[in-house]
Amino acid sequence: AAKTSGKNKWQFYTVKMQQDAYKKIRLTNSLRYALDNKELYLVYQPQISTQQRKLIGFEALLRWNSSEYGTVSPAHFIPLAEQSDLIQEIGNWVLYKTCFFIKDLLNEGWHGIHIAVNISSRQIADENFVAMIGDAIESTGIRPENLEIEVTESLCMASLDDAQKKLSALRQMGVHLSMDDFGTGFSSLTYLRKLPFKSLKIDKSFIDIIETDVNGAKIIDSIIKMAHTMDMNVVAEGVETQGQLEYLTANKCDFIQGYIFSKPLSEYNAREMLNTRIYG
Ligand code: C2E
Ligand code: MG
Ligand code: MG
Ligand code: MG
Question: Rounded to an integer, what distance in angstroms lies between the CA atom of residue 7 and that of residue 2?
Fold first, then answer.
């Protein structure tokens, strides 16, 4: 009897796996047309200085409002784009869209603004990666300092030397680099050692445990101290509670990004934020 049910189970999973694979293909195909159909757009989440509570910049985050599937999370569709050839096209669109927005803000008098964009390792692997970033900056007429690049440590080790060369070239140009989702991967310290980061973003999963896990809180304190020793800034991501904010303030975390200050905003509301928050 056990054998039979085991067999049925196997068949069940096989069918489910086929259905999942089919869904994935359909979703990817839909994503292929999302740019042309204007279903993709960016929102901008404010970053606030911890001590002075000033707005210092934003992170651009991609959104997909699909006519077929409704709202799809980037955590869901970015991996699909990365598995196909789509990430180049989408990533380039994100880059230009962000640079044009920065240019508009500069024209409106918001000098010194920075906006961070997330870059996939597939994009870095592209041989034209550095030139593409350079072109986006030049053709939109912004300064390299206005653009920040967020990289996660999901970069594969084999491509680390290549990434090192390219990211160093960007840093040389004056583009700031952030290490995203710090603490979640397996090779954080190697990345810190080899790549020219200007700031380090502590992943939300660490921020979540500040108030409940004494060791977790101590790890955060140590990360901040280590980053400062290496002349890097620290951004805490996903800060939601007063208790988290107080801990991060007391332990000299430099910048806060989280719902406690603001969710990601439309261009319109990002401007509103610039007008109402002390900016600097
Ligand atoms: P990420 O780069 O680590 O972005 C931070 C995520 O945390 C965002 O999720 C943001 O909305 C969310 N977040 C920020 N503060 C809070 C908070 O206080 N509470 C909660 N619950 N969440 C908060 P989002 O927008 O869903 O993006 C998920 C991930 O998708 C990003 O993680 C990033 O890895 C990826 N992603 C988003 N846009 C792009 C893009 O344009 N290109 C690439 N390659 N990846 C992107
Ligand atoms: Mg990010
Ligand atoms: Mg992150
Ligand atoms: Mg992430």
Answer: 9
Q: How far is CA 268 from CA 104, 105, 116, 141, 203, in A?
A: 12, 11, 18, 21, 28
d(CA 209, CA 216): 6
Report how far ligand 1's centroid is from the alpha carbon of 7 (Å). 41
Q: Is pLDDT larger for residue 98 or for residue 278?
A: 98
- Predicted ipTM beyond 0.95: yes
Which of 132, 145, 60, 126 lies closest to 97, judged by CA? Answer: 60
Helix axes 214-229, 242-250, angle to 10 degrees: 40
Q: Is the CB of 73 under 6 A from ligand 1?
A: yes
- pLDDT, one tens digit per residue, over 193-231 is 889 999 999 999 999 999 999 999 999 999 999 999 999
**pTM tops 0.95, yes or no:** no
- What count of other Cβ atoms lies within 10 Å of the Cβ of residue 107? 9
The verdict on the CB of residue 94 being under 6 Å from ligand 1 is: yes
Which protein residue has the closest C-alpha to ligand 1 atom 41? 62
**CB of 259 shorter than 6 A to ligand 1:** yes
The CB-side HSE value for 111 (13 A sphere, CA atoms) comes to 1
* CA within 13 Å, CB half, 91: 26
Residue 25 CB coordination number (10 Å) = 12
